[in-house]
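Narrative summary of target 7.
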Amino acid sequence: MIHLRGRAGKMPVKFLLTLAVFAALIYYGIGPARSYAKFYQLKDEMRVQARFAGNLTDADIRRRVGTKATELRLPGEAQRVTIRRRGRPREIVVTVSWPDTIILPFYRWTHTYRAEVRAPL
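Modeled conformation, tokenized:
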């Protein structure tokens, strides 16, 4: 329940300021939240592919991770997947990096995402 102070029909200034700050946080937070969600979805796909790397070729892994990047509407750089298979310890390292620019009123932010996943072979 909102308690009104002063004259009837007037909302307190503190309430309106809190509401404005909350709205601004939501408005400015949606872009970065979507961007980070895409990052974690691609990284999850990389983990799955690395887990089954013993049965897959490097080309298969690149294709599958690239397809996921396309589904997420990531830039072309996100489809450049680097795969290294190491002998000691036997492991696979899958790496992808791409820049993402978030454009908001009065602010432009470019962040370079770098996802790296390691799994034993």
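The radius of gyration is 22 Å.
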